[in-house]
């Protein structure tokens, strides 16, 4: 689907690789990292389904330095489900006013804590940090 929309794009998948988080370490196939290195991607999209918020970001932080070809690494989570059509996107009217997150909350109430962190706590922390840095510069 993406390759049809973007001529020249080459999409590779390691969807047969299963990764698990056990207490304080990654449990993953031994050849996972070498397979990613072999593909030499420019962009690494990581989706660790069912692992919960922040696991894919932790995996990226821990492993991206081992992939010299990667210019951008991003956790895509549920975006894959939306692109593939498995999960229905918000109606266009909600998307146009920036409320797709609210639609997902209505459809998946278990996401409330994650959305609260992203929509409320993160902006407050970012603004507080910016103000603190601004005061220190003066």
Question: How is this structure best described in words?
Answer:
The chain folds into two domains: 1-87, no CATH class; 90-138. Helix content is 48%, strand content 10%. A two-stranded antiparallel sheet has the order 1-2. A two-stranded parallel sheet has the order 3-4. The mean pLDDT is 82. It is globular. The protein is mainly alpha-helical. The longest helix has 26 residues, at 112-137.
Number of strands: 4
| Estimated structural class | mainly alpha
Strand content: 5-15%
pLDDT averaged over residues: 82
What is the straight-line distance between the termini? 52 Å
Q: Going across the major beta sheet, what is the strand order?
A: 1-2
Q: How many independent structural domains?
A: 2
Return residue spans where pLDDT drops below 50 for at least 5 consecutive residues. Answer: none
Radius of gyration: 18 Å
- What count of helical segments does DSSP give? 7
The ordered string of helix (H) and strand (E) elements is HEEHEHEHHHH
Profile the largest sheet: 2 strands, antiparallel
Amount of helix: 40-55%
Give a quick set of tags describing it.
138 residues, mainly alpha, two-stranded antiparallel ribbon, two-stranded parallel sheet, 7 helices, globular
What's this model, at a glance?
48% of the residues lie in helices and 10% in strands. It has 138 residues and is mainly alpha-helical. It has 2 domains: 1-87, no CATH class; 90-138.
């Amino acid at each position: 689907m993406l390759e049809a929309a973007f001529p020249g794009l080459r999409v590779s998948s390691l969807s047969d690789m299963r990764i698990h988080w056990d207490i304080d370490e990654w449990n993953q196939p031994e050849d996972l990292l070498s397979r990613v290195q072999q593909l030499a991607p420019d962009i690494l999209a990581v989706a660790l389904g069912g692992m919960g918020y922040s696991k894919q970001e932790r995996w990226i932080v821990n492993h991206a330095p081992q992939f010299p070809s990667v210019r951008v690494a991003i956790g895509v989570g549920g975006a894959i489900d939306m692109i593939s059509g498995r999960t229905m996107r918000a109606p266009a009217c909600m998307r146009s006013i920036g409320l797709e997150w609210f639609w997902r909350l209505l459809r998946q109430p278990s996401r409330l804590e994650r959305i609260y962190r992203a929509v409320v706590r993160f902006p407050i922390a970012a603004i507080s940090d910016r103000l603190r840095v601004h005061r220190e510069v003066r």
